[in-house]
Each structure stands twice: as C-alpha cells, then as structure tokens.
C-alpha cells in the first residue's frame, strides 16, 4: 500500500515567478540558495539569513544546469551554446567549452556534481514532438574535458548520487522510470544500470535529491508531489507541493534539514495561472530528514579547459 499524501506547511522563499525555476543548490559558505531561471536566462541567489537577493544574466537563450565553483568565485554554467564560467564579482561570463552536441537539435538539461566534483549533465531535444527516442546523452565534465558516458536517453532528469558516492540515479522521464547505476567514485564511471523505480504513465519524474539516509527524493512535474523512495526502491513518502509543477528539490539550511523546491508555470493558460498564482516561485518545507552537502566543481578544471 502506498503512503497517504502529506500536506505540510510550505513557505515561499522567493516571490519572483520565472517561467521555469530549476536546479536549487544550497551554499553553506554564505547561507544562500541558488537556482536558475531557465528562459530568462539567469542565475538567482537569495540569502536565507538576510534576504538579500542577487541575479546574474547568463548567455544564450536557455540554461539547463550549473555547478558552484569550489573557491566561491562563480559557477560553471551549462547553457544551450556551451559551458561557461560565470564570475560572481563582475558578472562576466566566458566560454569554457563548446557544446558536445548539435545545437540545432539538443540542449543541456539536468545536471549536478558527483562527490568528487565531476559535473554530470544530460541533454534533451529542443523539439519534443517527433523527436527520436534515445538520441540524447549524459556527459561528464572534469579535468579531462567533456565526454559522453551514458547514451540512449531522451530527456535527462533526476540526477543524484548516494551518500557513499557508489550509486548514480537518473530519471528516464519519457519512459516513466528511474534508473540506478553502480558508480565508481574514483574513476567517475557508471555501470550496470538497472531500473530502480517504474512510475505510472501519468507521472513525470523531474529533478531530484538524496538525503543522508540514502532516500531518493524526486519531484513529479504536473502531479504536485515530491516523493521519497528508500534505497531499495520502496515508495516511502508522498508530499503535496503548493503548486502542480514542481521541477527540482534540494536540501538546505544551516543543518541541511529543509527541503527547497523550484516550480514552473510553463504553458499555463490564464485560468491555470489564476488558480496557481504562485507557480514559478521557490518554496521550502521541513520534512524531518537531513540532506548531504552539494559538491563543488573545481575552479582549476574550468581554468585548464580554456
């Protein structure tokens, strides 16, 4: 029997409403939450202690994912036209690496760093209607450059790593399933991918996070839920979200005991937006679990790639 959906006390973190908010990352060094507004495109930050907000404009027409640098100076941005170095102080962006894909067909999408700082980012087709399934890839970005590691994807989502770094999760959104790979944290190599969870056809698995006990938390886009699965793949919790289109979740706060969720209002008509005026905002809730720190991408790797 599946657990009953929980109605918790969500709070709004940011009152600006981008078309799609994605990729929340908590940074303990300045007690801030970062996320991206995909089509603006911009990287956003809000201080959780002081409420001070900041926004950096980003290159190209779309941004999929990013990773914060280990020295706190900026972020590696996976944009439609390449990987960029964003410098926080100046706001300047510099191309680090061209896209490894055809920019007329694909864009970067979901991504995050493994425990050693390697940045994993997947792609998805610009035009979903008529797109050939299984033509997209997951790429690894490290000191050796950008290399394709996992193929056969259509829309890359749900990237996360177990607390010990020995399991990698990917949501195969189009096929309504979540995959789990054995992962070598020394070499950064995934292998032996297996179906971890299969969800209903009506469910759309999106962005994810992992807690300190190894639970896999994933947003259900359009379903208004965040779900927690145990490391064995059992559905453990279902939490209702304030709006119907959550996009990604992340643990944050000084004790990493709060769950932040970004949301979307993409393709909502006037009636839907009237019914969900807070769609696109960022929310936070206490869920009684503790997360794991988000790894940083080494600045030296970005510098050496130029």
Automatic annotation (TrEMBL):
SUPFAM superfamilies: Calcium-dependent phosphotriesterase. Residues 21-264 form the SMP-30/Gluconolactonase/LRE-like region domain. Substrate binds at residue 109. Keywords: Metal-binding, Zinc. Pfam families: SGL. GO terms for molecular function: calcium ion binding; gluconolactonase activity. One of its GO terms (biological process) is L-ascorbic acid biosynthetic process. The keyword Lyase does not apply. Its cofactor is Zn(2+). Binds 1 divalent metal cation per subunit. A divalent metal cation binds at residues 22, 157, 206. The keyword Metal-binding applies. The active site is at 206 (proton donor/acceptor). Belongs to the SMP-30/CGR1 family. This is Sugar lactone lactonase YvrE. It comes from Herbiconiux ginsengi.
């Amino acid at each position: 029997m599946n657990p009953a959906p929980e109605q918790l006390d969500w709070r709004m973190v940011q009152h600006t409403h981008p078309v799609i908010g994605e990729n929340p990352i908590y940074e303990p060094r300045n007690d801030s939450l970062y996320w991206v507004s995909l089509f603006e495109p911009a990287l956003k930050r809000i201080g959780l202690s002081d409420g001070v907000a900041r926004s950096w404009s980003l290159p190209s027409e779309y941004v999929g994912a990013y990773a914060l640098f280990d020295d706190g100076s900026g972020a590696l941005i996976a944009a439609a036209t390449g990987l960029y170095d964003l410098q926080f102080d100046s706001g300047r962006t510099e191309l680090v690496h061209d896209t490894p894909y055809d920019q007329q067909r694909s864009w970067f999408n979901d991504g995050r760093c493994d425990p050693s700082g390697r940045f994993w980012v997947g792609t998805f087709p610009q035009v979903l209607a008529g797109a050939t399934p299984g033509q997209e890839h997951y790429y690894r970005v490290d000191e050796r450059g950008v290399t394709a590691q996992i193929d056969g994807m259509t829309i890359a989502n749900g990237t996360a790593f177990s607390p010990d770094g020995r399991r990698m999760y990917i949501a195969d959104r189009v096929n309504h399933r979540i995959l789990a790979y054995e992962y070598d944290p020394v070499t950064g190599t995934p292998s032996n991918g297996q179906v971890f969870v299969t969800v209903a056809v009506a469910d759309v698995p999106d962005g994810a996070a992992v807690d300190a006990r190894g639970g896999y938390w994933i947003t259900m886009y359009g379903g208004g839920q965040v779900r927690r699965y145990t490391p064995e793949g059992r559905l453990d919790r279902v939490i209702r979200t304030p709006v119907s289109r959550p996009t990604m979740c992340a643990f944050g706060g000084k004790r990493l005991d709060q769950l932040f969720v970004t949301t979307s209002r993409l393709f909502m008509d006037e009636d839907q937006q009237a019914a969900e005026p807070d769609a696109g905002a960022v929310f936070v809730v206490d869920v009684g679990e503790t997360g794991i720190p988000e790894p940083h991408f080494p600045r030296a790797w970005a510098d050496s790639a130029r």
